[in-house]
């Protein structure tokens, strides 16, 4: 089913950070149209707002992964975590499509002034958490930092099953996780897109196989569904796994690698298709708790333009490869 005109109009009536992607991936507008919209992201709306909140030392909210003073505050006892410190804000800006030059000398300032909350490690060297390192790898490459050392960290810290787990470095797990593996894959792919480093393709392949062998949905040990999170779609998902987020990664990776969709994605595709409403939208399942600069999507239970963008382009990619009629 093709997206109807009312839904497309609703999706286009959004911030430039979302609108340019709708123009490009859903409306198939000419490049001069969506590129002009993308150029507005750093000057107006959400992108401009995030840029305006940057501290003089290059950070956001005074911290690398958490705001300054967080661990000594009552906030640390509340559900969730803040999403407004440096790493999360850079990730949002990068994914909004803000050009690196809009951030000026941010990379140099962070090298001088930002340290990880874990062991006071220097910012661009990363730390021990694979999810944090994946965001840092992509952010650094985007801002022109030489991230080749951190890129190799992912090769060296793969687990025996081919994926990654944020708890492995503390000795708490020898098995990969869906969440950590997807985050690692997204960081590696973003790094490869920016740098053209082909040596990491094999590293990505093992992580992809970890998810594909489980059809994005199931435990390898029992064949049972991994957990409800796999079929709960939310935006922004931050670090949280879902079948939709994984499918969007595989769509992006297939485009980069020049490969067709893997047939083991079929069941996850049907999960996404089943959650599509008659008007072509998807519903926000929940919001992650925690402090934000602003909300960039709808509350729980409402039709989400971001999820509708992602779901629509995933199904279009799959259906085009399988000659599924739309409309």
Description:
It is built from 13 helices and two strands; from the N terminus they run H-H-H-H-H-H-H-H-H-H-H-H-E-E-H. The model has no long low-confidence stretch (mean pLDDT 96). The chain is globular. It has a two-stranded antiparallel sheet. It has 327 residues and is an all-alpha fold. It has helices at residues 5-12, 16-25, 31-39, 45-52, 86-96, 106-113, 130-142, 148-156, 178-195, 201-212, 243-257, 266-274, 305-321, and strands at 282-283, 303-304. Helices cover 45% and strands 1% of the residues.
Quick overview:
The protein is mostly helical. The chain has helices spanning 5-12, 16-25, 31-39, 45-52, 86-96, 106-113, 130-142, 148-156, 178-195, 201-212, 243-257, 266-274, 305-321, and strands spanning 282-283, 303-304.
What share of residues are in beta strands? under 5%
**What is the end-to-end distance?**
4 Å
Radius of gyration: 19 Å
* Outline: globular
Query: What's the number of helices?
Result: 13
Could you tell me the mean pLDDT?
96
Largest sheet geometry: 2 strands, antiparallel
Element pattern in H and E: HHHHHHHHHHHHEEH
Strand order of the largest sheet: 1-2
Structural class: mainly alpha
């Amino acid at each position: 089913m093709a997206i109807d005109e009312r839904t497309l109009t609703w999706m286009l009536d959004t911030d430039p950070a979302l609108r340019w992607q709708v123009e490009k991936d859903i409306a198939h507008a000419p490049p001069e149209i969506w590129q002009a919209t993308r150029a507005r992201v750093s000057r107006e709306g959400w992108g401009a707002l995030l840029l305006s909140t940057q501290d003089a030392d290059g950070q956001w909210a005074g911290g690398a992964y958490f705001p300054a003073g967080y661990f000594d505050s009552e906030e640390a006892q509340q559900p969730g975590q803040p999403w407004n410190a440096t790493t999360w804000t850079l990730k949002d800006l990068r994914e909004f499509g803000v050009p690196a030059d809009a951030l000026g000398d941010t990379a140099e300032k962070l090298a001088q002034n930002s340290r990880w909350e874990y062991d006071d490690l220097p910012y661009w060297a990363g730390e021990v958490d694979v999810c944090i390192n994946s965001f840092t790898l992509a952010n650094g490459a985007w801002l022109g930092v030489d991230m080749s050392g951190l890129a190799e960290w992912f090769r060296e810290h793969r687990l025996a099953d081919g994926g990654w787990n944020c708890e492995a470095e503390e000795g708490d797990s020898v098995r990969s996780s869906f969440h950590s593996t997807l985050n690692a894959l997204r960081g590696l792919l973003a790094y490869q897109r920016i740098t053209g480093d082909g040596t990491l393709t094999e590293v990505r392949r093992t992580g992809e196989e970890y998810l594909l062998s489980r059809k994005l949905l199931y435990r390898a040990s029992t064949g049972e569904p991994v957990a409800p999170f796999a079929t709960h779609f939310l935006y922004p998902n931050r670090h949280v796994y879902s079948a939709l987020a994984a499918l969007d990664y595989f769509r992006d990776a297939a485009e980069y690698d020049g490969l067709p969709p893997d047939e083991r994605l079929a069941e996850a595709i049907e999960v996404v298709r089943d959650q599509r409403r008659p008007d072509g939208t998807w519903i926000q399942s929940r919001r992650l708790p925690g402090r934000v600069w602003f909300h960039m999507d709808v509350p729980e239970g409402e039709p989400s333009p971001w999820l509708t963008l992602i779901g629509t382009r995933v199904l279009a990619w799959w259906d085009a490869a399988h000659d599924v009629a739309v409309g």
